[in-house]
What we know:
By secondary structure, the chain is an alpha/beta fold. The protein is built from 15 helices and twelve strands.
Amino acid sequence: AALKARIRDLLTAQKAVLVAHYYTDEDLQSLAEETGGKVADSLEMARFGTETDAETLVVCGVRFMGETAKILNPEKRVLMPDLAATCSLDEGCPADAFSAFCDAHPDHSVVVYANTSAEVKARADWVVTSSIALPVVEHLAAQGRKILWAPDKHLGHYIERMTGAEMLLWNGACVVHEEFKSFALERVRRLHPNAAVLVHPESPDEVVDQADVVGSTSQLIRAVTELPNPEFIVATDAGIFWKMRQLAPHKILIPAPTAGEGATCESCAHCPWMAMNALQNLETVLKTGDQEIQIDPAIRERALIPIRRMLDFAR
Length: 315
Ligand code: MLT
């Protein structure tokens, strides 16, 4: 409690606001809400950063989220509790190799997931998050465009199946979602026949195929509040349970299994980089300011174009 109080004072003194992702620890999500900040998915985090008049954005999440905030708000100071918090999708898509892939397919529209570096975004025609990837690709496919998609192959394949778009997929995956196991999920479904199955599309096909709802964090949270089912089996990062419990306290939430048959535990599906965000290093960065996002101005200018396109499309 004393630590939270000190952080509140530092936020006020520095005209700073917290922007936390649904996958961060509940201490951070609750503090963000209690102090006038925002808890959201990456699309809404990006939008909130442009709407607040705070002078400093403290992004609790992973690095690409801090970079997107800086690209959209170059006049603001953007801090993160730990700049080393990366993302397996971002790491698996180095800018040089990606650029060569784009050069080899110049007749394709380049659509990249928000989970990429500023350099990769700078090479893209469109940036999308999981909450609007489907309508954006539908829109492009309706214009007869062929699509080069990076980096998440599972999400890309899901969108390809849903839209029928012609897509070339980069071979990337999320270390958390890739671990959901379809055979064990079948067993958990048999044990909970009244449960609706909620699956994030970064999961493997055989897991997605068992879903009642496939969607981004915001879409899965909405499903828990709107569907009549008393129970939900949830295949995404366990950080999401805090917001689901807050909005639907009477629903029973069951983590989808990540290991062998029957094995279930909440902490199994938790991003190790999201977990690098904590109250302790949040206090430290508010005191020292040393974990500040910096982006090369030329990259920033180029990466802003596809990010703006996404925000305008989503409006
Ligand atoms: C994001 O966009 O924040 C992540 O892909 C998680 C999600 O919202 O589905």
